[in-house]
From TrEMBL:
InterPro entries: P-loop_NTPase, Sig_transdc_resp-reg_C-effctor, TPR-like_helical_dom_sf, Tscrpt_reg_LuxR_C, WalR-like, WH-like_DNA-bd_sf. SMART domains: HTH_LUXR. Residues 262-289, 916-941 are annotated as: Disordered. Keywords: DNA-binding. Residues 852-917 form the HTH luxR-type domain. Transmembrane segments: none annotated. The keyword Nucleotide-binding does not apply. Residues 916-926 have a biased composition (Low complexity). GO terms for biological process: regulation of DNA-templated transcription. Pfam families: GerE. Residues 927-941 have a biased composition (Basic and acidic residues). GO terms for molecular function: DNA-binding transcription factor activity; transcription cis-regulatory region binding. It comes from Streptomyces coelicolor (strain ATCC BAA-471 / A3(2) / M145). This is Transcriptional activator.
Length: 941
């Protein structure tokens, strides 16, 4: 052990909101009736902490703690235990906590479980038990309601780490601690306790391995073992097999074969069922409780226990198991896995050049079937066995690249740290810096990513100009994400010292040449676009799109989708994004899947297909979070906010905007921030709050140093013009139209020309507005897109109604309503219904019933509560205070109530609620009379 850091003991519960809600529900109900609950989770996930939280939170009566041992509680019968608990609950409800119930002996567990089942709700006893799920939960507890604990989410684990260390851990140390802990709170505490203050702050190297045997055993609550030597060998063999598969399950046949080689005695070992060709073995032991056999796969119930079994085994026995696994795998088409196990069977940590070379060469062989995770593990092991510093750095870098492709940036970062070697050639250092920059671009401050990628381009320029050009273009991507236009232009210099059009020696010929040409054309077109030379941007960006039509590399296809979006060719962007997604999935490149989904979502959004954009963004968000790509997740959050902003989901908009802005502000993502703010403003505009919308959007689109991202603000101009005109800020609206006209002329946004005509109509005098609205609708017919066309029809219909042209207005508003309903724009459809109602049309809401009670049944529970209180004469402020919400929320829901019920005043609402309640009372009375008649006559209901 090294010097220890003092860990704070009073640490608040992080995460576990769902589990705490379940516990709180039981505690809150105890004054009225009893309850039972079982907490289950692998060692270290915080079962004891949650029990303590529940005990501290319970204020209605005493708390009893029962435990195994010589005390009488553990040996009471179920009846005696029930009598004891009921007696304790006579004066007040009682909470009974039983931690680690699985440790009780079998008779005591049986009586405890019987008592739990016999408890009635009238007993006012809350029984809260916890069991470890690293073994099968005992059958005696199978009928109890269970609350499961999972590993902490990355953000929650990070918050716990900051609590433990007061936030002093160096960033690299922090990342490595979180990666090693894998969301297990107890393991995270043990890892922090192991480090000295100097190690924690990054002033001294971290011990290796960081999660050594003692730390793992501390977190797991001891060293797992089996009832016999055979069982212990089985546990170790499954654990060792998992080392080559990132801790996942193992093939039962492979384990059986390895055990035979390890123990060539008769029989096939414990719990593995019949031996092929030999028939069943009546002497087979049962499977150890830590393992699960599903079909032909074996796995540990707890990843922490698996790691602990492997780390705490005797070194010679662990090497023997790896040797047996290697022998069993030889010649079976698992060459890389066999070599990896063979390398782990070597005696001692001394470098082994021959083994390292074979391992690295096999990992680099694309013809050898292997996942990116397995290749990363093989490269890292080859690096450990390599004495030469430059080659070691090269292999650690290759391991990091494979970890990134597997979507594991938390694994790539420590590998890149291990690759640092000042003596390594520039090409090796440049490759490592490129990977570091790409990691930060997806999951870190994009300003840091920009600098790392520029350094990579410089280091790679002499030996690999094509890779240097790719690094420079990625640096431009980082500057783009940051909204740093000068840095973006500087990175895309017109005559860079990099010859991107020539592939490096040793590359794969035509494919590499095509990739280099795509990088070159994309750089040229992107710079022309940013310089405002729109006429010069089309040709090179078009070449990028065309060149990628015959390619199958996901990186090149992603460039194609990006170029198509810059050109406004949404169909090509969708095609490129879909092909990139298919290619990434086919290659198992988990890191590229979220980005492909991002381009697909943006393409659907630009085309006005919000439901499709939402579908892609929801999947993209899941995959981005799974791959540790917080920056990509922020972009998906922004798309989800934009999609929700046209629907009746203000809470969803607020949630996605807050999450996107949280990451955007910390990592400098100006583009994601601008999109999220646009979404919030569009939601304001849709809900009839033009002043709020104009204030938000003014910060994004008006000229000045605070203007939003250079690639986003133009897209938000039509919303700003509409909000500004409604808010009486016509001059502000006019200030942005010249730039927007240039953008529309370029043709990069298929909706821009129609939107420009709509903006001019909003600002035009009456004698010109009519023709401009008609022109805008004609342009919408050419561009397609239900949502934007419906918005123009809505504004035109409003304009016609206010000029007392009701017949024309009704037609335009009806078209708008149909368009909004078609694309799921609920909040905008409500505006169209309000306008039609003002004309006397009073359209039926979707799914409306004929009777008054049925119409009230269309309201949400919250809307119904608000409607009833308003009907009783409460003001909006009084309703807000009663329900614990804001007045703005009440305003919003009340407007939805009026629209859904087709009423125009509080008086009409009160009348309708009264009629509904009288109808319900009459129906209840009729039902009661019918039931009484049936009881008297014996008739069947």
């Amino acid at each position: 052990m090294t010097g220890q850091t003092t860990v704070r003991t009073a640490v608040r519960v992080h995460g576990r909101s769902a589990q705490r809600r379940a516990l709180r529900a039981m505690l809150d109900a105890l004054p009225a009736h009893g309850g039972r609950l079982l907490l289950a989770g692998e060692p270290g996930l915080g079962r004891t902490t949650l029990l303590q939280w529940a005990a501290r939170s319970f204020r209605a009566g005493p708390v009893l703690h029962l435990g195994p041992g010589p005390d009488a509680n553990a040996h009471l019968t179920a009846g005696q235990l029930l009598d004891t608990l009921r007696a304790a609950a006579v004066a007040a409800p009682v909470l009974v906590c039983v931690d680690d119930a699985h440790r009780w002996d079998a008779p005591a567990r049986t009586e405890l479980a019987r008592a739990a089942r016999l408890l009635s709700t009238a007993d006012r006893v809350g029984l809260l038990l916890s069991v470890a799920s690293d073994r099968a939960v005992g059958p005696e507890f199978a009928r109890l309601p269970v609350v499961h604990l999972d590993p902490l989410a990355p953000a929650r684990a990070a918050a716990l780490l900051d609590d433990l260390t007061d936030g002093v851990a160096a960033p690299a140390v922090r990342e490595q601690l979180l990666a090693e802990a894998e969301g297990n709170p107890a393991l995270l505490v043990a890892l922090v306790r192991r480090l000295s203050p100097a190690e924690l702050r990054g002033h001294r190297p971290l011990p290796s391995p960081l999660a050594e045997a003692g730390v793992l055993a501390e977190a797991a609550g001891g060293v797992p073992t089996g009832p016999s030597a055979h069982a212990r060998d089985l546990l170790l063999t499954v654990a060792a097999a998992g080392e080559a598969s990132d801790g996942s399950d193992a093939d039962a046949g492979l384990v059986r074969d390895a055990l035979r080689r390890l123990r060539p005695a008769p029989g096939h070992g414990p719990g593995l069922g019949p031996d092929p060709g030999l028939g069943p073995d009546p002497g087979a032991e049962p499977l150890p409780g830590q393992l699960v056999l599903a079909g032909d796969r074996l796995r540990f119930r707890s990843p922490l226990v698996r790691r602990t079994v492997h780390a705490t085994a005797a070194a010679d026995r662990r090497r023997a198991v790896h040797r047996a696994l290697a022998d069993a795998l030889d010649g079976g088409g698992h060459r890389l896995t066999a070599l990896l196990h063979r390398s782990w069977s070597l005696d001692g940590p001394a470098p082994a050049p021959a083994s390292a070379d074979r391992l690295a060469a096999t990992a680099a062989d694309g013809a050898v079937p292997a996942s990116h995770r397995l290749r990363a593990t093989a490269y890292a092991r080859a690096a450990e066995l390599t004495a030469d510093g430059a080659r070691r750095a090269e292999r650690y870098t290759a391991a990091a690249e494979q970890a990134l492709l597997a979507g594991r940036p938390e694994r790539a970062r420590p590998l890149l740290a291990a690759a640092r070697d000042r003596a390594a050639p520039d090409a090796v250092r440049g490759r490592a810096e490129l990977l570091r920059g790409m990691t930060e671009l997806r999951d870190g401050p994009v300003g840091d990513a920009h600098q790392s990628l520029l350094l990579a381009a410089s280091l790679l320029a002499a030996d690999d100009p094509a890779e240097a050009a790719a690094a420079a273009l990625a640096a431009a991507d980082a500057a783009w994400a940051a909204g740093d236009l000068p840095a973006c232009l500087a990175t895309l210099a017109p005559e860079p010292p990099l010859r991107a059009e020539h592939p490096s020696p040793g590359s794969d010929g035509p494919a590499a040449a095509r990739t280099a040409a795509v990088v070159h054309d994309h750089r040229v077109g992107m710079r022309a676009l940013l310089e405002g030379r729109l006429d010069r941007a089309g040709a090179p960006l078009g070449q990028v799109v065309r060149r990628s039509r015959t390619g199958d590399r996901p990186e090149t296809l992603l460039r194609s989708a990006a170029a198509a979006l810059l050109l406004g060719d949404v169909d090509a962007a969708r095609s490129g994004g879909a092909r990139a997604l298919a290619a990434a999935r086919q290659l198992g490149s988990d890191a590229l899947v979220p980005q492909a989904l991002e381009y697909l979502a943006y393409a659907e959004l630009r085309a006005g297909r919000h439901p499709q954009a939402r579908t892609h963004a929801e999947e993209g968000l899941r995959t981005a979070l799974r791959a540790g790509q917080r920056n990509t997740a922020a972009h998906h959050r922004a798309v989800l906010a934009l999609a929700a902003s046209i629907e009746e989901e203000p809470d969803a908009v607020a949630r996605h905007v807050a999450a996107a802005l949280d990451t955007a502000r910390r990592h400098g993502l100006a583009q994601a921030a601008a999109l999220a703010q646009w979404a919030a403003a569009r939601a304001d505009l849709g809900r009839g709050r033009p002043f709020d919308a104009a204030d938000r959007l003014g910060l994004l689109v008006l000229p000045g140093p605070g203007r939003g991202h250079f690639a986003v603000w133009r897209l938000a101009v039509p919303c700003f013009v509409e909000a500004a005109v409604l808010a009486g800020r016509d001059e502000d609206a006019r200030r942005v139209l010249t730039d927007f006209a240039d953008w529309a002329a370029f043709g990069a946004d298929p909706q821009a020309a129609a939107q420009l005509a709509r903006c001019h109509a909003l600002l035009a005098p009456a004698e010109h507005a009519d023709a401009l609205y008609r022109h805008a609708l004609d342009r919408h017919d050419e561009a397609g897109g239900d949502f934007e066309r419906a918005r123009t029809a809505l504004l035109y219909g409003k304009w016609l109604r206010r000029r007392r042209r009701p017949r024309e207005a009704r037609g335009r508003l009806g078209t708008a309503l149909a368009g909004f309903e078609r694309c799921g724009a609920g909040v905008w459809a409500a505006q169209a219904r309000d306008e039609l109602r003002a004309l006397g049309a009073a359209p039926r809401s979707p799914g409306a019933g004929a009777g008054t009670p049925a119409r009230l049944g269309r309201l949400t529970p919250q809307q119904l509560r608000i409607a009833r209180q308003v009907a009783e004469g409460a003001t909006n402020r009084e309703v807000a205070l009663t329900l614990g919400v804001s007045t703005r929320t009440v305003d919003y829901h009340l407007r939805k109530v009026f629209a859904a019920l087709g009423v125009r005043s509080r008086l009409e609402l009160a009348r309708m609620v009264g009629q509904a309640e009288r109808a319900q009372e009459a129906q209840a009375a009729q039902d009661a009379r019918r039931a009484g008649h049936q009881e008297k006559t014996g008739a069947q209901p």
